[in-house]
């Protein structure tokens, strides 16, 4: 719905096209998910709220890094935003860490869990409390400059997540 250089500078145009794109997705048996990606003009949570007001059955991907980039991860835990999970709007989670400050573009890198400042123990505890039974996409740059995949680091990510959700 937004992202890249233009980010959310034309968000209202994107809101208008959502219904058309969603109808196409439904026609092919797909569930269109809107992610809380980084913004230049506003913030992702404001946009998610606006979309939900217009499209009551909208579904989302919630990304921990993007939320932390905008200092919005803690909003997920508040009663004001419990509609996100209580009404089933969040259908998937992207989990990755972030080490920068508020809208610190130079630090917007995909980091493995534990290499930034996201409190994943709290996050996974909360997710478990909500009864979420869906999947997670673990986002972590897993290869070095030579293209060698760090399998041990990836396995460590999954081990830690299993500890938190078991």
Describe the structure.
With 166 residues, this protein is α/β, with parallel strands linked by helices. It has a single domain (11-165), classed as TIM Barrel (Alpha-Beta Barrel), CATH 3.20.20. The protein has six helices and four strands; from the N terminus they run H-E-H-E-H-H-E-H-E-H. The chain has helices at residues 11-27, 44-54, 64-69, 83-86, 120-130, 151-165; strands at 33-35, 59-63, 90-95, 136-138. A four-stranded parallel beta sheet has the order 1-2-3-4. Strand 1 (33-35), helix 2 (44-54) and strand 2 (59-63) form a beta-alpha-beta unit. The longest helix has 17 residues, at 11-27. The radius of gyration is 16 Å and the shape is globular. The mean pLDDT is 92.
In brief:
The protein has 166 residues and is an alpha/beta fold. It has helices at 11-27, 44-54, 64-69, 83-86, 120-130, 151-165; strands at residues 33-35, 59-63, 90-95, 136-138.
Strand fraction: 5-15%
The helix/strand series, from N terminus to C terminus, equals HEHEHHEHEH
Given as residue ranges, the uncertain stretches (5+ residues, pLDDT < 50) are: none
The CATH topology comes to TIM Barrel
Number of helices: 6
- Globular, elongated, flat, extended or rod-shaped: what is the shape? globular
Order of strands side by side in the largest beta sheet?
1-2-3-4
CATH architecture, by name, is: Alpha-Beta Barrel
Supply Rg: 16 Å
Tell me the span between the first and last alpha carbons: 34 Å
Mean pLDDT: 92
Tell me the major beta sheet. Answer: 4 strands, parallel
Fourth-tier CATH superfamily name? Divalent-metal-dependent TIM barrel enzymes
According to CATH, what is the class? Alpha Beta
Give the beta-strand count.
Answer: 4
Level of helix content? 25-40%
Structural class: alpha/beta
Domains (count): 1
């Amino acid at each position: 719905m937004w992202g890249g250089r233009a980010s959310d500078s034309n968000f209202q145009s994107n809101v208008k096209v959502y219904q058309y794109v969603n109808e196409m997705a439904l026609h092919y048996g797909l569930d269109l998910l809107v992610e809380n990606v980084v913004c230049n003009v506003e913030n992702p949570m404001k946009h998610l709220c606006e979309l939900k007001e217009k499209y009551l059955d909208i579904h989302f991907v919630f990304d921990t890094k993007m939320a932390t980039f905008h200092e919005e991860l803690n909003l997920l835990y508040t009663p004001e935003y419990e509609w996100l999970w209580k009404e089933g709007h969040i259908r998937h989670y992207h989990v990755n860490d972030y080490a920068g400050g508020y809208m610190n573009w130079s630090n917007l890198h995909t980091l493995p869990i534990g290499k930034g400042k996201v409190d994943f123990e709290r996050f996974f505890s909360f997710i478990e409390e909500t009864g979420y039974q869906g999947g997670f996409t673990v986002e972590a740059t897993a290869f070095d400059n030579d293209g060698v995949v760090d399998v041990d680091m990836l396995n460590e990510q999954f081990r830690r997540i299993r500890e938190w959700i078991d």
